[in-house]
Amino acid sequence: MCLAAALASLIALTGCGGESGTEDDEPRIGPVPVVRVGTAGTALQLPLHDYLFSQRQLRELDRARFLLLDRCTRRFGFPYPAPAYSGTGPTSLAGRRYGVYDAQQAKAYGYGIAGNHQPPERKELPPERKYVVFGEGASPATGRKVPEGGCLGLANRQLTGGSTGQADSFPQLLSSESFQRSREDSRTRKAFGAWSACMAQRGYAYDNPFAPARDKRLRADGKAKEIRVAVADIACKEKTNLVGIWYAVESAYQRQSIRKNAATLTSAKATIKRNMWTAASVLASR
């Protein structure tokens, strides 16, 4: 398909208004936003994001978790301070949902990304400390009983009020389902076709926007080529408005899920609020 034809096939998408149809049909989509390069990570707010921990909240939970972990391990004779936060990485829940679309990051890292601090590493701990932190391996000869699941297990229970699951696990499941359904939606596939045609015009043969990041040959050709492909990828996303179309399609699927699961989602949202109140109290007690 040539690029002009592929783009023409998308015109009808932006004219879809309202949101009707049955729950089993491809839902109608509302207005399709035009997503500019570099804005997608911060500007896109999917409907289910109201029921998920935000990136800021996740960082606050991590800070509280590491503080509780450190307090516990000190009772066994050693500190466990939190690693430094780099201040880099996705700034929102939609930061890489539809592939790479931050021009500045693409020019610096290609399809890679600078990371935030990492979770506790098991392999870096001697056996007796590993048992204290994770409750795994041989028990240390301290005479003091280690909490179930180690100090990390205790910290998690203290943050969640004893629950072993994460407050947004059900909304996360719905979010994963909406992503998969939107990826298979006929309108998103048409957008993939337009993006693929655009990439082909630049000399790159990929069927979908996740293919370049998984291309081992591209990685083998060196970072310079990877960066060139990532920059072209973003340019084609902007030219075809792939991210805007995909976002509109997935939003429609998420609104369906919210209608079907309103009571459960309301409960999950209340639990998230309680968890954040607990985290704030822990951090205030330092």
Oligomer state equals single chain
Number of DSSP helical runs: 12
Largest sheet: none
Assess the beta-strand content as a share of residues: under 5%
In N-to-C order, the SSE pattern is: HHHHHHHHHHHH
The domain count comes to 1
- Return the structural class: mainly alpha
* C-alpha-based Rg, rounded: 23 Å
Work out the helicity level.
40-55%
Low-confidence stretches: 1-18
Which geometry do the CA atoms define? globular
Provide the residue-averaged pLDDT. Answer: 84
Report the strand count.
0
Distance between the termini: 61 Å
State the main characteristics.
286 residues; globular; disordered N terminus; Sensor domain-containing protein
Care to describe what's here?
It contains twelve helices and no strands. With 286 residues, the chain is an all-alpha fold. Helix 3 (55-74) crosses helix 6, helix 8 (186-201) packs across helix 10 and helix 8 (186-201) runs antiparallel to helix 11. The chain is globular, with a radius of gyration of 23 Å. The chain starts with a helix and ends with a helix.
Any chance you could write out the topology, listing elements then pairs?
Blueprint: H1 3-8, H2 40-43, H3 55-74, H4 103-109, H5 127-134, H6 150-160, H7 169-184, H8 186-201, H9 216-220, H10 223-240, H11 242-260, H12 262-284
Helix pairs in contact: 3-6, 3-12, 4-10, 5-6, 7-11, 8-10, 8-11
